[in-house]
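I hope you will forgive my troubling you with a question about protein structure. I should value your view on which stretches of the chain appear to form regular backbone elements. Here, with my thanks, is the record as I have it:
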Amino acid sequence: MGLLDNFEKGLERAVNSAFAKTFRSGLQPVEISSALKREIDTNAAIVSRDRVLVPNTFTVRMAQDDYDRMAGLGPALIDELTGVVQRHAASQGFQFAGGITIGFAPDESLSVGIVQIDSHSVKGEVAWTPVLDVAGRRYPITKGRTIIGRGRDADVTLDDSGASRKHAEVQWDGRRARVRDLGSTNGTQLNGAPVKDAVLEPDSVISIGRSRIVFRVIAQASGGAQPAGRRHDPTMWGPAS
């Protein structure tokens, strides 16, 4: 279950949860989700009988306090919102000109609890980028092998006494990924089971000591993409009443 599902199905009842404490007032992720879907619907353009084009690049602007809270969730919230956009477009039969990009930006002209969306279409191919998410930080995998460990020479450095200096590696050949333990002292787990060398599927969880590392493959607009059409004059939404 994703972050947005948690909010939608039980935020009121989770008064003692970390999320409830974080979002007791001000903007909430479900309101961003609704604003994005509304932005897509109001900017759908009929290109041909069988093609309705919608924006694929979004800037979500909000007050500084709201921005600080949302940024604290790390890349997981962006992933959830991207999924919302993809599913909503698919349900409506909409299409994108390229990969989906969503970014947050603080805006001092906005009051707490108000969200404003800027959107436009960007032509281009979808680039699939492998990443490792660790404790709210995202590490793109840009070479053949990425070393994970406690040592300073590791590509992904863990502040974890249960990790060896060079604990494990993730191999990426441009299409597929593998995880391999590098003879670590405490071993490596993949989705809760000990692993020495195995295929790494998207959204798999690598456990090293107390650290939880999630492997993802993110769809992004490829470099050099150019805007298609004008920048949309955004519409403002406040918190749901």
